[in-house]
Amino acid sequence: MDRLERTPFKIQRDVLYALLLLELSSRFGKSRGGFFWVLVEPVAHLLVPVMIFTFVRARLVPGIEYPVFLVYGFLPFLFFRSICLQIIDATNSGQGLLAYRQVQLLDVFIAKTLAHSVIYAVVFSVVLTALGMLGYHVFPLRPIELGGVLVLTIALAFGLGLLFAAIASLIPDARAAIKILFMPLYFASGILFPVTRFPDHWVQLLSINPVLHLVELSRIASVEGYQPMPYTSVVYPLGLALLTLLVGLMLYRLRVLTKVTV
Amino acid sequence: MIRLDNVTKSYLTLRGRKVVFRNFSLDIPEGRNIGLIGRNGAGKSTLMRLISAVDMPDSGKITTSARLSWPVGLTGGLQKNLTGRDNVKFVCRVQGVRRAGMQEKMQFVQEFAEIGDYFDQPVSTYSSGMRARLAFGLSMAFDFDYYLIDEVMSVGDANFKQKSREVFGERLQKSKVILVSHSMRRIRRMCDVVVHLDAGRATVYEDVLEGIKAYQAAGGVEGLAEQDADAQDVAGQGAAEQEMAAASAPAPVSDAEAAEKEAAEARAAARARRRKRAARRRARAEQLKAGGGQ
């Protein structure tokens, strides 16, 4: 009956499939309106600033529809934030799953990353469609380039998430500090208005933030005639993604993350 | 064969690193029921965690070709925000059981756990007894070469216990156990080989009684809580109380008779006690009546 031998590949596939469904059903199954609430968060993120800045009538971004500007800023930001935080939390919340010997912590990380990428992809499709129906020019200029930016975003979120999770399991107190880091990220990523409105030496400082680069890249790929931050580069977030993935996976291999501290 | 090769395992505590095993090697014999014994803190549960791959060693290797269960009855593996049914589905998927097989397992667990409508409620709404029943049913739904049991609680009322014993006895026809217990009675009853853990070293005893002797020589005593639980078991108390107490592990069917006999004796004793008490009460009442008459 269960005596079927499974190849390692099949086990890996089964585990990822199980974890992916688990993640999706625990996200949507929590309440009747599970999907509704998943949708509400980004919509609220969009609506509040749109309303404020439309009524103030400030022409923040000349020549560009403001909601479109916002939505393509939120796109990489929310991908990044949710995946990164999910991975940091998974070192705690995923412990119970490790009782089943086929399940490894890395599987939990991968499943959460996949699940949240799918969720946000769907959410943003809905939001973009809605904006399109309202008459905004939402269709991305270069969709494949935008896809590439999102893949880069996911890679960076995964790498940084691994690194943060390792730090958090070495120094348990660091967990709270890392989460606090995410609060100013919202303002340091140039989502509500372009950072180019700041003085140049500020912009130089802000360009340390890799998420800012991703936000700018996303807008370059999607919005016609967008004037990006002058220091925007692909190489910086890409290099950082590769470096954090390398170090993060190395720490995982050294079993830094899997050590249970009592 | 389960082999631990040069395993080191330590835990980080608030007062520094505590090493449980250093360069620890152990070959666990094949096809036998294994009892893990040792004093509190000897590393029994840590060894169990390592064997069940819940925890990883700092260094060294643990290899096996056998299919090992997760710790039987472990409620920590249940996802609290999911329903009982979704938890069963998850475990089925992890084990590679799909479609018809999954339906079959689901039915088995649902019938076994006896939690009624709660099967479709989130686990977070369960009582601890219901959680334990679901977890135990889940462990019993799958075939393994070894079932890993760390002082398992069999929970629920007498009826559920009897059923647990039967199902587990059935599994033991084909499978083996690795059992951690303080109860030497249970070790004698269920195990063919004893692994005695002391100060980070393990000795394998092919003779169970010899192993128990070594354990007692090292200062081991039968767990008191265990005996209490056994006593409660026999006295046949209310189901609620039994649910609270982590009671004895399910015994193989062959011992069910013995247990029944014990229970019958206990019941008889209780009846006798009750009769005696009633007689005393009557006598006292008569005395009072007589005193009132004077």
The mean pLDDT of chain B is: 79
Structural class of chain B: alpha/beta
Succession of helices and strands of chain B: EEEHEHHHEHEHEEHHHH
Shape type of chain A: globular
Using a beta-carbon cutoff below 8 angstroms, give the protein chain pair with the largest interface and the number of residues from each chain: A-B, 32 and 32 residues
Percent of residues of chain A in helical segments? 55-70%
Overall geometry of chain B comes to: globular
Strand content of chain B: 15-25%
Estimated structural class of chain A: mainly alpha
Low-confidence stretches of chain B: 224-255
End-to-end distance of chain A: 39 Å
According to DSSP, the number of beta strands of chain B is 8
Q: What's the average pLDDT of chain A?
A: 86
Major sheet description of chain B: 5 strands, mixed
Order of helices and strands of chain A: HHHHHHHHH
Beta-strand percentage range of chain A: under 5%
Question: Which spans of chain A have pLDDT < 50 for at least 5 consecutive residues?
Answer: none
Strands of chain A, total number = 0
Can you describe this structure?
The complex is a heterodimer of chains A (262) and B (294). Chain A is mainly α. Chain A is built from 9 helices and no strands. In chain A, helix 1 crosses helix 4, helix 5 packs antiparallel against helix 8 and helix 5 packs parallel to helix 9. The longest helix of chain A has 29 residues. Chain A is globular. Chain A starts with 7 loop residues before the first helix and ends in a 9-residue tail after the last helix. The model of chain A has no long low-confidence stretch (mean pLDDT 86). Chain B is an alpha/beta fold. Chain B is globular. Chain B has a 5-stranded mixed beta sheet with strand order 5-6-3-7-8, with helices on both faces. A 3-stranded antiparallel beta sheet of chain B has the order 2-1-4. Helix content of chain B is 47%, strand content 19%. At the A-B interface, helix 1 of A face strand 1 and helix 2 of B.
